[in-house]
Structures are given as C-alpha cells and as structure tokens.
Amino acid sequence: MERYRNAFRKKVIPRYYRGKFHVAIFSIIQLSAILIIAPKCEWKISSLLVVLLALGYATTFTYFLHRFLLHRKLPAFGWAFKMHHWHHTFYQSHRMEYDHLDDVYMLLMPPWIQVFYYAVYLPGLVLVAELFLPHYLILPFVFGLTLWYGIYELIHWIEHLPVSHWSMKIPFIKSARQSHAVHHSKLKDVANFGIVEPSWDYILKTKF
After folding, report:
1. Which residues of the chain have pLDDT under 70?
2. Domain for residue 208, yes or no?
3. Which of 112, 135, 188, 205 is the most core-located residue (most Cβ within 10 A)?
4. Is residue 107 part of a domain?
C-alpha cells in the first residue's frame, strides 16, 4: 500500500502543491466568511429556524450530489468523477488515514471550488431565497450554508484520522468514521453517501 501511495502521489499531486497552504487558504476563507456574516445577522428565533432550514437543504444537496454526480461519469462532469475516484483510490477502507499533510490534496475540496461556492453558488441561492424569505432572514440562510461548508470539510477530515486519535472516543465521530469506512469499501457505489450525517441514507435505504 505504501508503494502504491508513493506512486500515486508522484502521478497525481502537482509538484508545486503544499498541503499546509491548502489548509491555510481553506481556514482563512471559511473563518473570514463566518466572522463577516454572523455579526450582520438579525438573530431571532426565526433566524435560527432558517439556519436549520439551510443545514437541511445542504445535507440534502450533499447527499444527492455525492450519490448521483460524484459516483457516476456524467457528460461535462467527468472531472468531478475523476477527482472523487482519486479520493476513493487513495483512501481505502483498510487505510483511511492520511500519511502526510500533502495527502489532503485527495481529501479537501480544491481552493477554486471553495471560491466558486462563495462567489457563484451562494449568490445564486440568495437570488432564489429572496423569492421566499423576508429580507432579514437572507443572511441567516447564508450563514447556515457557510456553516455547513466548514462542518462538512471538518467532519470529512476527521473521518480520515487514525482510529487511535482522541476524537474517536466521541461516539458520533467514531460512528461517522465507521460509516465512512464502509463507503470506502467495495460498497462505495451503493452505501453511506451522507458524509456528515446519515438521514438520507436511512430514508433511501443506502445505510449499511
């Protein structure tokens, strides 16, 4: 496995890539977005409900995107399938953890996707949300989606830590890692597409 991973790194990871910069860029953008949006929200009970609505939408979108786009080679989205295939090839059920920080190249979303998320995807959703939500609830909606992006990447990262890591003593984290390991097994195309939480896996009977 080590020989395979070394060969994979040389073939796939660009020479200029540095995992520490990738992590830093993600962290700076994510924390900045949260710190900018949160103080501008008008916090009421309705605002908190909208945050929950946004999280519910996000987990739904994540499940269906993961199951029907990343695990199928569709026209115009072959690049997404290939990137996700790299992730599954490098991280297998018997070797879920990364060895070096540069291995997050096959773990974290590329920085350009994060930029696209905030520069294109979120503004597009805001235009739709404005048709249904009062003005003061738009920012809480955006805050929920911003929060989700960070939660998703953090939980997915933790799921690829060693089983000996202290976080695995937390029942939810341990369960999430075990569930994600099943997704990285031979059942990858049929099981456990909910990376953060398993609601849709239970609903659509893809929970193993």
Report:
1. none
2. no
3. 188
4. yes
